[in-house]
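re: that chain from earlier
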Amino acid sequence: MRTLRLLLEKEFRQIFRDKGLLPVIFVMPMIQLLIMPLAANFDVKHINLAVVDRDHSTYTQQMVAKIASSGYFFIKGYYTDYTPALHQVEQEKADIILEIPAHFERDLVKENKAAVYLAADAINGTKAGLGSAYLNTILGDFNNEIRMKWLPVKMPGAGTIDVTYSNWFNPNMNYRLYMVPGILVLLVTMVGGFIAALNIVKEKEMGTIEQINVTPIKKWQFILGKLIPFWVIGMVDFSLGLLLARFVYGIIPLGSLLLLYSFLAVYLVALLGFGLLISTYSANQLQAMFVAFFFIMIFMLMSGLFVSVDNMPGWAKVIAKLTPVTHFIDVMRMIVLKGSRFADIKMQFLYEIAFAVVLNGWAIWNYRKTA
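^ sequence. v structure.
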């Protein structure tokens, strides 16, 4: 244990002597946690709508007024012909065109049905899809309002269905409650993964690795000496992130903090083992940085933070399940938002333990092989 203690003293001294490294470890993740949830807004609220009204009736005016009052749509033009509305879309001044045909009100009154036409600029697929869905919902509500006015006359005594719903765990559908826990996981991953990947390579470039290899230090002691300091730093970064989430975004974990930190402890062992594994294979820091960037980008994009894993194709789901980040993001949201207990996350816990054993065992074996 004395050997391990001396190694840890050496590592901590090296870390705190590097004045340029400390802001990267502690300051940059907190700034990113402040900025990213504000920028990564998946709510689509500013949709520019061009209206082509060929009917100019009372119903069309009421329908357009209902759309404009929804708070999601801004009427950017009111036309009688389709061509100028299309020019608005081509010039990126409008996102969706709503075309109301002639005789809209007459068909609706006499034939009990009328059609409208929607054309969406699908360059931004998310905005087009959500905007069209919002507009369909508003038009559906307007249609129901008209039917309710007619029902006492045409269908006396007809019943209606009143649907009551509630959103569990995130009642106000606040995207920050969903994004902040996942972003915190990614920031801890980036800090831990990159720095651990550069650790052993730095010893190689400085020439001190040969001196360490001729000492009686065991391989597992060397790996632990490299792993534990950044494990502690990861814990500190995560704690600062939780405090920031609480006082800036008002996010308070509903579940057990002990359970959350227990999972984090195992996750950091797996993550740092992965970084050290990259370090044992790399010849210099530049190579280690690019290899770590390659894998961490895959972890980020397939973690389920931006795109649900359930919506991925089968082969992508397999890759997502083979990354420790995916499981930690799931657990983070479950504990923070749902208050999940150990029984709910035990499978993810076992996955992380397996990742930790395999990655660190591989790092120790490969370092011994190349020493």
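The first helix runs from residue 2 to 17.
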